[in-house]
Amino acid sequence: MNWSLDKIKQHQHFDKSLNFIKLISIVGSTEVILKLIGFVSGILIVRMLPVQEYALYTLANTMLGTLVMFTDSGISNGVMALSGKVWKDPKKLGEVLATGLDLRKKFAFIALTVSTPIIIYLLLKNNASWLSAVLIFLSLIPAFYAALSDSLLEITPKLHQDISSLQKNQLRVGFGRLLLVILTIFIFPWTFVLILASGIPQIYGNSKLKIINKKFVDSHQKPDPVIRKEILKIVTRILPNIIFYALSGQIVIWILSVFGNSTDLASIGALGRFAALMAFFTTISGTLFLPRFSRLADDKEILLRYFSFFQLILFLAAGFIMLIVFLFPAQMLWLLGASYSSLSSELFLIMLSNCIGLIAAMSGNLIGSRGHFLNPIFVIALNLGTVILAYFIWDLTKLRGILYYSIFNQCFSLLVNYIFSFSVIIRAKK
C-alpha cells in the first residue's frame, strides 16, 4: 500500500492535480457560502414582498440583467480572449483592460438611452404607479453602474488564479447585500429600496477589485485603438447573438410582462430563486475552467480532453440538481411561502430548462473563451424557428406552455453548441 502511494505521489501530474483539487475545494466552499447568502436574501425578499410588489421586483431585475448584457455585447469575451494571450505582461494586460472598460462606458450610454422608455412602459403595464416606476428606474442606475466594470475587473485575477482575493471580495459584497436587505425589507418593503440595497455593495466591491488588479496590471495604461479594433471584431461577430439571447433568454418574463398577469410573473420570479443552485456551478466553472481553457495551446488532443472533462462535470452537476428537485419539491416550495405552494410541476419544468441551459451556455462560453463564436445569423434563424414551431404546439401566453418552449429551445441550443464546439476542436492543430 505504501509503495502504491509513493508511486502515485511521484507521478509527474500529482502535484498539479493535488493543487487543482485544493483550489476546487476552496472555491467550492466559498461559493457555497456566497450562494447561501444570495439564496437567503432571495427567499427573504420572496416571503416579505406582496405578490404584486414581487412581480415588479422580478421585472426590474430581469430588465437590469438584460441591460447589462446589452452593455457588454461581447466585450468581456473579447477582453478574455485577448487577455489570455498576454496574461503575463502587465502593460499589455493594462491596455486590454482599459480598452474594454472604455468601450463598456460608451455602450452603456447607448443601452440606457434606448431602454429607458421600455423599462418605464413595462413597469406601468404591470400596475406600477408613475412614482413607483420612476423610483425603480432610478434605483437600477447604481446597480447598472456597478455591473459595468464588475466582470471585466475579475478577468485578470482569474487568469492569474488569484482566487482567494476574488472570493474575499465577493464575500464582502454578499454579506453587505444581505445586511442591507435585512435592514430595509421590514421597514421599506418596496422594489426600488431592495434594488438599491443590491447595487451599493457591488460598487464598494468594484473599488476593491481595482486594488486587486494592480498586482497584475499596469493600471496607468490608456485605451489602445488596435486592441479596440480587435475587441470590436469579436463584438461584431457575436452582438446579434447577445441581443437575441438577452431577449430570448428571459422570454418567459418578457411574454408574461406583456401578455400575462402579475401573479404568473411573480410565480416565475419566485421559482427562479432556485436558479442559485445553478449559479454555484456557473461561478466555479467561470472562475476555474474558462480562464484555464482560454490559456491552453491550440492542440486538438488537449482541447478535447479538457472540453470532455468539463462536460462530465456539467452533467453531474445538472443531474444532482434535478435529483434534489425530484425528491424535495414540497420542501423547496415551502421556502417560498404559501402563495407559491401549488407550483410543483412548474418547479420541475423550470429547473429542467435551467439545467439544460446551464450545459448549453457553459459549453458555448468555453469555446467562446478562445475567440470562437457561432454565426449570429444562423443562431437567430434557428431560435426564431423554434419559437414559430413552439407557437403551433403550445400556448405561449400560459406559464406551462412557455416552460415547455423553454426546454425545447434549450435542447436545440445545446445540440448546436456541441456541433460547433467539436468542429472547432477538430480543426485545431495536433
Keywords:
globular; 83% helix; cell membrane; 18 helices
Question: What does this molecule look like?
Answer:
With 430 residues, this protein is mainly α. It has one domain (22-426). It is 83% helix and 0% strand. It has helices at 2-9, 14-48, 51-72, 75-83, 90-125, 130-153, 155-159, 163-185, 191-213, 225-248, 251-259, 262-271, 276-295, 300-327, 329-336, 344-368, 376-393, 399-426. It starts with a helix and ends with a helix. The model has no long low-confidence stretch (mean pLDDT 78).
List how many beta strands DSSP finds: 0
What is the terminal-to-terminal distance?
38 Å
Arithmetic mean of pLDDT: 78
% residues in beta strands? under 5%
What is the chain-wise order of helices and strands?
A: HHHHHHHHHHHHHHHHHH
- Provide the number of structural domains: 1
Radius of gyration: 22 Å
Q: Counting H and I runs of at least 4 residues, what is the number of helices? A: 18
Show unreliable segments.
none
How would you classify the helix and strand content by structural class? Answer: mainly alpha
How much helix, percentage-wise, in residues? Answer: over 70%
Q: Biggest β-sheet, characterized?
A: none
Mass-distribution shape? globular
Membrane topology: Multi-pass membrane protein
Organism: Flavobacterium panici
InterPro entries: Poly_Biosynth_Transport
Subcellular location: Cell membrane
